[in-house]
Write a structure and sequence with these properties.
Layout (H helix, E strand, L loop, with lengths): L37 H8 L8 H24 L6 H39 L24 H19 L9 H21 L9
Helix pairs in contact: 1-2, 2-3, 2-4, 3-4, 4-5
């Protein structure tokens, strides 16, 4: 797994997984940054160095390579002509990629959790929950996926789209591109709801 251009990985970083850069940790006295937009995620996937939200976008960048390794390993495992050696190597790559993706998702979710805690600490106002019947507690809807999981899906669709665009093909249609656009629109709406306190993330 590579790291974001211009960002060095710590010496004690576990093999095959990115750690959180101490420089990316938001000081307690600083106001919490808003969640990065889908446009910022896509720019990071393409290799642009993030100006803000590095605590989320740096591990998101690493997701692209992990998803690529995962995709290529699956292709080899599905190849009936692959040799035993190739299948063995692909199986190892697949497991490593899955573990790395899980680690990166956790890193992103931890960063998001820190932001949400900081925002609640900074704000004197508690978001108004959705009204509920008198015999029930007010509830704020909880989204089924975390930001890290959404970022991993974005990275998967981005990598698949780039791979197909750069290869000769008979059909110019790329369903992954449409899915990526739809996911980006949905993510931006979700981020706005989270920022306004109208929706919660799992585990928060």
């Amino acid at each position: 797994m590579t790291t974001m251009p211009g960002s060095a990985a710590p010496d004690d970083q576990p093999p095959g997984a990115s750690g959180r850069d101490p420089d990316d940790v938001t000081p307690e006295w600083a106001p919490a940054e808003p969640l990065p937009s889908s446009e910022m995620f896509l720019a990071t996937f393409s290799g642009s160095q993030p100006v803000t939200a590095g605590d989320i976008l740096h591990p998101a960048y690493d997701l692209v390579e992990c998803q690529r390794d995962h995709r290529l390993a699956v292709e080899v495992l599905a190849d009936a002509d692959a040799s035993f050696t190739e299948l063995k190597a692909a199986a190892t790559t697949l497991v490593t990629a899955q573990l790395d993706i899980a680690v990166l998702i956790a890193i992103i979710d931890d960063a998001v959790s820190d932001r949400m805690k900081q925002r609640r600490h900074d704000s004197d106002e508690v978001p108004s929950p959705i009204q509920a019947p008198r015999d029930r507690l007010p509830v704020v809807p909880t989204h089924t996926e975390s930001i890290g999981e959404i970022a991993a899906h974005m990275a998967e669709l981005w990598g698949t789209t780039i791979a197909k665009v750069t290869q000769p093909t008979i059909s110019p249609k790329f369903p992954e591109t449409v899915q990526l656009i739809e996911l980006c629109v949905a993510y931006d709406s979700l981020a706005a709801e989270i920022e306004s306190g109208r929706r919660m993330l799992p585990g928060m």
